[in-house]
């Protein structure tokens, strides 16, 4: 007794390939438009970054020790949550930047000097 296996290929001509291609072109066009928008805004953000950093330094220096300790703990907790959650290491380091600024300000206050944080 012999068994025979047959396979049959069915081709459709309903135009689904052209619809997929059209959709892909629309998605690519939308992505290109968004990339152009983001590139245009990046220059504005870069121009405002020094002012934002100076304002952040001023706010940290004017804050009370208790408020700075709470903000530093919040920043470290947020960074550790990102790390445990599997976030990108660059994002974790960015979340630790406020803790570093706050820590250096608190060390300045304990030492009585103004040499650790230079700026505003």
Describe the protein's topology.
Layout (H helix, E strand, L loop, with lengths): L15 H47 L2 H20 L4 H23 L9
Which features does this protein show?
elongated; 75% helix; 3 helices
Describe the structure.
It is a single chain. This protein has 120 residues and is mainly α. The protein has one domain. It contains 3 helices and no strands. The longest helix has 47 residues, at 16-62. The radius of gyration is 28 Å and the shape is elongated. 4% of the residues are buried. The model has no long low-confidence stretch (mean pLDDT 80).
Low-pLDDT stretches? none
Q: What's the pLDDT, averaged over the residues?
A: 80
Element order: H for helix, E for strand: HHH
- What percentage of amino acids are in beta strands? under 5%
Give the number of domains.
1
Compute the CA-based radius of gyration. 28 Å
């Amino acid at each position: 007794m012999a068994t025979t296996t047959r396979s049959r290929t069915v081709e459709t001509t309903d135009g689904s390939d052209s619809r997929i291609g059209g959709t892909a072109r629309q998605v690519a066009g939308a992505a290109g438009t968004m990339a152009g928008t983001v590139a245009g805004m990046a220059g504005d953000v870069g121009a405002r970054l020094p002012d934002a950093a100076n304002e952040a330094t001023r706010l940290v220096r004017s804050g009370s020790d208790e408020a700075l300790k709470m903000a530093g703990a919040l920043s470290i907790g947020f960074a550790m949550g990102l790390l445990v959650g599997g976030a990108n290491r660059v994002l974790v380091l960015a979340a630790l930047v406020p803790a570093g600024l706050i820590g250096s300000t608190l060390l300045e206050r304990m030492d009585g000097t103004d040499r650790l944080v230079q700026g505003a």
